[in-house]
Design goal:
Length: 378
């Protein structure tokens, strides 16, 4: 046996006998679940797309609201040629717009884009026939000096255009920002309320538990969508109102799970030892109890994230969620569901498929986390 092989064997023996942490075991089990891993990748891609936003959308204008009525309801993978003409009165403030502002809000086009059918050069001018979408085209002839034309470009609308000639792919990409933002912030609100009330109810018991359970039962008895609609009417329509409305209705599930988990472990030896050492109640709850129920909270959070996305889509479909021109998957389905009976059904199917994919990804991830955190089942 060589010296190198001897050291390699010793290293393998040390690795085999080294204790593995619970987090490492959970991560290892999760990595073996192919469906959960694929779901995590899908969620990551949507999150990256939502974060980069206008920097990667084909239409970088605010709310992806650049309209070309001549190009309405183009099928997917259609191409169009644009004559980009310099604006007469360009706003200097827009030219000085910072990168972060562009990332969040987009930026207007620095030129006027005119859809054209064909063009040719005549001396120092470029003559083009405007696009009408008719057969034959029969568009108006326009002429611009070469120094006025910024560029002539051909764009591909991979998901086609809607009834206003807006790029559907760009709206889907920015719509993911709305759905994921609503889910993320609503879950934070629900976690803060649900964990606090559930932990207090189970730890103190008595009249505190009775009052909180009564509140949980009252909220639980009201259909979620009706409660969300009522809160939305009270707060008003808008982007931030949806966050609050969804968050204020999703804490009940979390509170019930946390209450049950805290009930099961509050009499454990380490909790009794913390009390005997004179630790205060907040420290016992947040340092000794809540870390041991984190697995159950993570699983219910993944499920509620999917529910929050569905609620936001439903509110936007009903017209009381995110308001135009901000694109939302729910509002896109509402605007285009009439095309399902026509030859442009993709306008309603594409945002519907996006909702289905992201919700399915969160549900599968939740199932994977539940299996990975189930130590007894291993």
């Amino acid at each position: 046996m060589t010296l190198l092989s001897f050291f390699n064997r010793k290293k393998d023996e040390q690795t085999a006998t080294r204790p593995v942490s619970l987090n490492a075991m959970t991560l290892r089990r999760l990595c073996k679940d192919k469906m959960a891993l694929c779901s995590l990748i899908v969620i990551g891609l949507f999150a990256l797309m939502a974060f980069l936003g206008y920097t990667i959308t084909p239409d970088p204008t605010p709310c992806c609201n650049q309209q070309y009525l001549e190009l309405a309801t183009l099928p997917p993978f259609s191409k169009a040629t644009f004559l980009c003409v310099e604006k007469a009165n360009a706003d200097t403030a827009e030219a000085q717009q910072g990168f972060f502002d562009k990332l969040v809000n987009g930026e207007p086009l620095p030129y006027t884009a005119i859809p054209i059918y064909e063009y040719h050069k005549e001396g120092d001018s470029i003559v083009a026939e405007t696009f009408t979408g008719s057969t034959p085209n029969d568009g108006d002839m326009v002429s611009y000096a070469k120094d006025e034309v910024v560029k002539i470009e051909t764009r591909t609308f991979f998901f086609g255009t809607d009834g206003y000639g807006r790029d559907v792919l760009s709206q889907i990409m920015i719509g993911s920002r709305v759905s994921l933002s609503v889910g993320f912030i609503a879950i934070i609100i629900a976690l803060l309320i649900g964990i606090t009330l559930g932990a207090l109810a189970a730890y103190y018991g008595g009249w505190v538990d009775n009052v909180i359970v009564w509140l949980i039962n009252v909220v639980w008895s009201i259909p979620t969508i009706l409660l969300v609609i009522a809160i939305t009417f009270a707060l008003g329509k808008g982007f931030w109102q949806v966050f609050i409305a969804v968050g204020l209705t999703m804490w009940v599930d979390i509170a019930r799970v946390v209450r049950g988990q805290v009930f099961s472990i509050k009499e454990k030896e380490y909790v009794e030892a913390a009390r005997a050492l004179g630790y205060r109640t907040p420290r016992i709850i947040f340092k000794h109890i809540l870390p041991n129920i984190l697995g159950a909270v993570i699983v219910i959070t993944a499920s509620n994230f999917a529910s929050a996305i569905l609620l936001e889509a439903g509110l936007s479909f009903l017209g009381i969620g995110v308001q135009p021109p901000m694109p939302s998957w729910g509002s896109m389905v509402k605007e285009n569901y009439g095309y399902i009976l026509l030859d442009s059904a993709y306008l309603a199917f594409i945002p519907g498929i996006a909702i289905m994919v992201i919700v399915l990804a969160f549900m599968l991830l939740g199932n994977g986390l539940r299996n990975a955190l189930d130590i007894k089942g291993q």
